[in-house]
Amino acid sequence: MGGIGSGRHWHWDAKSTTTDYRRLDVRRWARDGLLKANAAFGWQWSREGDVVGSIRVAVECEAVRLIYRSRDHGADWQDWNYRVWLDRTPCNLGGERVWFLCPARGCRRRVALLYGGEIFACRHCHNLAYPSQREHGFQRMQRRADTIRCKLGWEHGDDFGAKPKGMHWRTFNRLVAELDNFEGCSNSGFIEYFGQRFGNLPV
Q1: Reduced to 3 states, what is the DSSP secondary structure of residue 90?
Q2: By Cβ atoms counted within 10 A, which residue in 48, 78, 84, 167 is the most buried?
Q3: How remote is the C-alpha of 65 from its chain's centroid?
Q4: In whole angstroms, what is the distance from residue 192 CA to residue 197 CA?
Q5: What pLDDT digit, counting tens, does each position of 100-145 carry?
């Protein structure tokens, strides 16, 4: 078998999104004090309360070693044990920020997140898109409208409500105008998208 990052696994044509993959966040590990030299810890992922994956991590000098098993679409289990180098950069207000150096062959990007298929690598090596990049225009407009409704304390789909207590009228009027615009664009985009996709919609 080739080294880390070899094979067609790295050149899929259809982009999955970052939410389709389990991920490791070096910022979380640093914040939780887990990156102490010679330490070891376990990490796991859960879905609806059930553990769906786990990994062992051994902390080395300026690196972590990832130890786990994986299999692809029902194939035999494969053992993995490899090093991911760490890098550190100073923060503007003191202290330092820790990064992974992507272990995929020829990459070495400095990243905060690694995503796991068979091996853990950056989103570029896995050819992953962010969920927002997969949205249609009308979905993006609706998401912005939902954000404003949340600020106003209004339920999704309700008619316009009252001004929240303590909010200035100028702010309230601006948010209502933005909400009206985003929802109008979303509705128009929805009708246009599905009209093009399925022909004229019945009235």
Answers
A1: strand
A2: 84
A3: 23
A4: 9
A5: 999 998 899 999 999 887 789 898 888 777 555 555 566 677 778 8
